[in-house]
Amino acid sequence: MTHQDAAAPASPAMPESISLDGGITVRGLTEVAELEAACRLYREVFAYSGEDQGINARLLKNLLTYGGTVIGALDAAGDLRGMAFGWTAVETDPEDPHVYHFSQAAVVSADLQGQGVGRALKTVQAAVAHRQGSSRMRWTYNPMISRNAHFNLDVLGAQGRWFTRDALAGPGTDRITVEWRLGEKSTAPHQATRDQRSASEDDFEAGLAAHPLTVAGEIRADAESTALAVPTQQPTDPTVIELLRTRFHEIFTEGFVAVSCRRVDEDLAVYRFTRRA
């Protein structure tokens, strides 16, 4: 089985509604008032103030009508505390044509972050997308933010498949696009990967444990695996940023995919990549 197949997939049995501790319910949004609240929350969480930085209820309503998703997390009082939205897209690569769902954004109120709400939003969104005919889900994240990388790769079990410089047409907008397979047998994140690792990958992991990376930008690689050290906090030093941009570009160009990003100490996290199947 390839690493692509081994990535923890979303299960076909995933529910389209999830109840969490604290009275939080995650489900699809349908009412206009809910969609308007989603637009306000989106701007609030991202601290957007510009006229060109928001979304509106008409857009979200059209997404719901024409194959998109709008998912919300509501508290016991009915107030919206998290939201995610996306749309159906088509991969036209003749070697791998398929329908997928692009998740544009998932936002959670600051006081609820780190409590499983983001994971529930993605899970419900994936379930709805699969029912609508998508076999995979994609979204992007800033590779310089290690906690987001850990959530996407280690918690959800998606794979980072593509790296794009200046993805949003401006400096500081490099993105990794992840892919999450839907509708296959569910596994715990990385359980399949651990079970199917080759001896060379085990040796690579053992080497990292014995001689860990210690500086942001430091890299270690063999024929099948690569590791890259990054700061735990988003870097601000232009030299470090440019070095990491170059590292990401080289690693993905050489045919690797991101499968993990784990914190190793207070200052450093380590990405792990395996060769694309």
UniProtKB/TrEMBL annotation:
The keyword Transferase applies. The keyword Transmembrane helix does not apply. GO terms for molecular function: transferase activity. InterPro entries: Acyl_CoA_acyltransferase, GNAT_N_AcTrfase_prd. Keywords: Transferase. This is Putative GNAT superfamily acetyltransferase.
